[in-house]
Design goal:
By secondary structure, the chain is of the alpha+beta class. The protein has eleven helices and 21 strands.
């Protein structure tokens, strides 16, 4: 549920006070104009300064429910935010901060969303969603970016294709942290994640629905399009039947995979052309549940989308022959295979959130800017061909293209490939996480580790790496040290030692598109 839309229009009259259950003596003011925003389970009132809302449950909360909510705003809040790195996660979640009670009704104090999660313009024409929350639905559907669609989003709201990889990294990190704490979201979907591709940010909302082990079972089965097949296939069973599947960590992982697929390809991975029942409702239940089949399954094409049945607004993205899922690169494709083939009906096989995070980050190292200034996506993943081109607009890469393969020292003098490549483009930066395998690119990076240590540029008709901070950069091919503030030529077959420290890497250069 989104609490915070149109808060700027909320009148500041009839202030009331809600006392905290957790913090004795602390109270919160809220504005009761007689017409609260109504969510599925809660009535929502705005605080007078717009920095928070008070969301009251309409139904009486039993002992387990109250204990679960208390734990969310105390124990779990402290473990997530009141420690090193907590500020990073405050931006990733809209987490309740306190619990109140008025006239026997329990409520939560929920912070307001950052202003970048509200549309500044929205549609190209009209102001229908201006000021509304940026629910993921707007960015996961092809029609809202189709230039022939009257209600398409303004280009200023869309970001680039690279933006969506970076947004998905944030979502994967948020889910990884929840799972590490033993929690499950239970209703992960584009309704419960706000995204902003312009600032490359995301925030997970509806935290009060978290499944806390031993205290509270999930009270929802999820949101349509994101419910795991095993949950749909068993929803007809009694609630306490041991064979009925409920929302948990593995159902979150199905939802995460669906979300990433939709943010990168603007179509649903299971909604294809196969009909499993003439009854529409039953067909949807089977197609997303017991009979679910990946629309791009490599050996079973029966669920491929039928182009004559698709909305013209869904093209070209709905055409899986024109834009197949391998345009996302080898790391992401492998995880889509694991999520929608191996793990679709075998939940334990689904890739976890950390695997998604690492694959997304490695894929950003494979990306190239499209030289066509009119290209809608602006970036694409190098396809490892001899004549690489942008799959979205068809523009070929002009000139040479350096490819750096990363190697690590398996044992003294024995170097092995890491299955990690870095594609070079003009003015691209080199970072410590490329230089040393002990520096992991995650939420724990220090400010110093985020500072570039070098950059690549095309200078005097040749590619060079400019050393900004590397103290032991060495050209192994020419057996020559490369001091700070000097440069080294990037040529075919050259080997560079990026660092002689423990964990330091060697890169081997290949010049593609020669």
């Amino acid at each position: 549920m989104s609490y915070l839309s149109n808060f700027s229009n909320t009148p500041r009259t009839n202030k009331k006070t809600a006392p905290s259950i957790i913090n004795t003596g602390k109270t919160y003011e809220y504005v009761d104009n007689g017409e609260p925003m109504r969510g599925g389970m809660k009535d929502v009132y705005f605080g007078p300064d717009k920095t928070y809302v008070v969301a009251f449950y309409r139904d009486k909360q039993d002992y387990n429910s109250r204990e679960r909510l208390k734990k969310l705003v105390t124990t779990y809040y402290d473990s997530f935010f009141n420690r090193e790195g907590g500020d990073y996660f405050k931006e990733l979640y809209c987490w309740p901060t306190d619990m109140v009670e008025v006239d026997g009704k329990v409520g939560l104090i929920v912070p307001a969303y950052n202003k970048n999660f509200f549309f500044k313009k929205g549609y190209v024409t009209g102001e229908g969603i201006k000021g509304k929350e940026k629910q993921g639905l707007w960015f996961a559907s092809a029609k809202f970016r189709n230039k022939q669609f009257s209600l398409r989003l303004d280009e200023s709201e869309l970001g680039s294709w690279l933006s969506y990889f970076q947004v998905c990294v944030k979502i994967a990190r948020g889910l990884k942290r929840l799972h590490a704490a033993g929690l499950a979201h239970s209703d992960l979907s584009y309704k419960n994640v706000l995204v902003d591709p312009v600032s490359k940010s995301a925030t997970i909302i509806d935290i009060d629905g978290l499944v806390v082990p031993g205290l509270y079972p999930p009270d929802v089965i999820g949101t349509a399009d994101f419910i795991a097949p095993e949950v749909l296939a068993t929803k007809h069973l009694p609630l306490r039947d041991p064979d009925r599947k409920h929302a948990n960590r593995t159902t979150d992982l199905h939802a995460l995979a669906v979300m990433i697929y939709m943010y990168l390809l603007y179509r649903h991975p299971l909604k294809g052309g196969k009909v499993n029942s003439l009854d529409t409702e039953q067909d949807d239940l089977l197609s997303m549940g017991e009979k679910a089949l990946f629309i791009e399954h490599p050996t079973d094409a029966s669920n491929r989308p039928k182009l004559d049945q698709l909305s013209k607004w869904a093209l070209p993205w709905a055409d899986v022959t024109k834009l197949p899922y391998n345009v996302t690169g080898p790391y992401i494709k492998a995880l889509f295979d694991q999520a929608f083939i191996t793990g679709l009906h075998n939940p334990i096989q689904r890739p976890n959130a950390d695997m998604w995070e690492q694959a997304l980050l490695k894929t950003t190292d494979l990306m190239q800017p499209c030289s066509n200034k009119q290209c809608d996506q602006k970036w694409f993943v190098f396809d490892n061909t001899t004549s690489p081109k942008c799959p979205f607009c068809g523009t070929h890469i002009k000139g040479t293209l350096p490819v750096l393969d990363l190697y690590y020292e398996f044992k003294p003098t024995v170097w092995k490939p890491e299955n990690h490549r870095l594609m070079v483009y003009n003015n691209q930066y080199l970072f410590q996480w490329h230089v040393n395998r002990h520096v992991v690119r995650n939420e724990k990076l220090t400010a110093a580790q985020k500072v570039p240590v070098g950059y690549f540029t095309y200078h005097n008709h040749k590619w060079v790496l400019v050393n900004q901070k590397l103290t032991s950069l060495k050209d192994l091919t020419e057996d020559k040290e490369i001091p700070i503030n000097t440069m080294v030529d990037i040529t075919d077959g050259k080997k560079l030692l990026l660092s002689n420290e423990e964990g330091g890497r060697v890169v081997v250069i290949t010049i593609a598109n020669k």
